[in-house]
């Protein structure tokens, strides 16, 4: 019985996060710290920050979200991209770790007090790729019984996240959530057309919504 790439990501992330909880030196080396990138060219921090988390609830929330969506999105990628599906799923996840932080980096290159960590941006990319593929699926926040279709949940989430990102003043990097989510959708669309899969994610999304109301 093979282990899915999603489970492998979760295991690696959980192990390193737990080690970093009690190893502040490791935490400092892996955390997203814009001045270290700008001045010391430590570009790896764009990716390594996704392997560490602030605490167990932070880790659990991200990894549970990835667990619920990861295999579903990976399976859809295999159907769309055939043998390259799992690789592209992994590429989307890893690249989104960096892409979602570019606006944060541009705004904080000289901010010596700013730090960010966690896989939330990459998890958002997976979730929103899933929403675009299965817009009729009911979604809700963890531990809340209320669920609404993904094509309604998604825009609401993006609007709220954009508001909090613009307002600032929070320990949560809402900007990474926002750009990660958008990147997941863009990655799916661009790769579908670039690789000539014959699958049109935009038409598929619209048709799924139409079928939901029929």
Task: Indicate the CATH class.
Answer: Mainly Alpha
CATH superfamily: Rhomboid-like
Rg computed from alpha carbons, rounded to a whole number of angstroms: 17 Å
Number of H/I helices: 11
* Helix proportion: 55-70%
- Helix/strand-derived category reads mainly alpha
Strand arrangement, largest sheet?
1-2
Count of domain modules: 1
* Number of beta strands: 2
Strand count, sense and barrel status of the largest sheet are:
2 strands, antiparallel
Helix and strand pattern: HHHHHHHHEEHHH
Oligomer: single chain
Please name the CATH architecture: Up-down Bundle
Percent of sequence in beta strands? under 5%
Q: Using the alpha-carbon principal axes, give the shape.
A: globular
Topology-level CATH name: Rhomboid-like fold
Mean pLDDT equals 94
Low-confidence stretches: none
> How far apart are the termini?
40 Å
Task: Summarize it.
The chain is mainly α and 214 residues long. Helices cover 70% and strands 2% of the residues.
Would you write up a description of this structure?
The structure is a single chain. With 214 residues, the chain is an all-alpha fold. It has a single domain, classed as Rhomboid-like fold, CATH 1.20.1540. 70% of the residues lie in helices and 2% in strands. The protein contains eleven helices and two strands. The protein has helices at residues 5-21, 24-30, 34-40, 45-48, 56-81, 85-99, 102-108, 120-133, 150-167, 174-194, 201-213; strands at residues 138-139, 148-149. A two-stranded antiparallel sheet has the order 1-2. β1 and β2 form a beta hairpin. α6 crosses α8 and α8 crosses α10. The longest helix has 26 residues, at 56-81. The chain is globular and about 55 Å long.
């Amino acid at each position: 019985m093979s282990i899915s790439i999603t489970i492998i990501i979760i295991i690696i992330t959980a192990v390193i996060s737990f080690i970093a909880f009690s190893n502040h030196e490791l935490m400092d080396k892996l955390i997203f710290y814009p001045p270290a990138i700008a001045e010391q060219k430590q570009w790896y921090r764009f990716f390594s920050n996704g392997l560490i988390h602030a605490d167990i609830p932070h880790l659990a929330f991200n990894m549970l979200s990835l667990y619920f969506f990861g295999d579903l999105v990976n399976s859809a990628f295999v159907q769309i991209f055939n043998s390259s599906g799992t690789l592209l799923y992994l590429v989307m996840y890893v690249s989104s770790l960096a892409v979602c932080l570019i606006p944060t980096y541009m705004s904080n290159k000289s901010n010596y007090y700013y730090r960010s960590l966690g896989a939330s941006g990459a998890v958002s990319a997976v979730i929103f790729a899933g929403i675009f593929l299965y817009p009729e699926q009911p979604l809700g926040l963890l531990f809340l019984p209320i669920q609404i279709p993904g094509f309604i949940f998604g825009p609401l989430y993006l609007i709220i996240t954009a508001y909090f990102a613009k307002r600032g003043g929070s320990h949560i990097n809402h900007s990474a959530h926002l750009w990660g989510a958008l990147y997941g959708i863009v990655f799916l669309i661009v790769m579908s057309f670039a690789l000539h899969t014959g699958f049109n994610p935009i038409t598929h999304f619209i048709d799924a919504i139409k079928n939901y109301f029929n």
